[in-house]
Amino acid sequence: MSTATISAPSAAAPRADYLFLAISILATAVLVALVLLDGQRASAALIIGGFGLGVAFLKAEFSYTASWRRFLTRGEAGGLIGGLIVIAIAAVAVVPVAALWQGYGGAIAPLGPSLIIGALVFGVGMQLGNGCGSGTLYTVGGGSGRMLITLAFFVIGSVFGSLSLPAFLAMGGLDPILASDYLGPWGGLIATLASLAVAAAIMITVARKRGANYKPSRNYIIGGIVIGLLCVFVFFAGGHPWSVTFGYTVWGAKIFQALGYDFSQAAFWQWAGPKHALAESVLSDTSSLTDFGIIFGAMAAAAATKRYANAPWPPLGSLLAAAVGGLLMGWGARLGFGCNIGAFVGGVASGSLHGWVWFAMALVGSLIGIRLRPLFGLSRE
Question: Nearest 5°: phi and psi at 241?
Answer without folding.
Answer: -60, 155
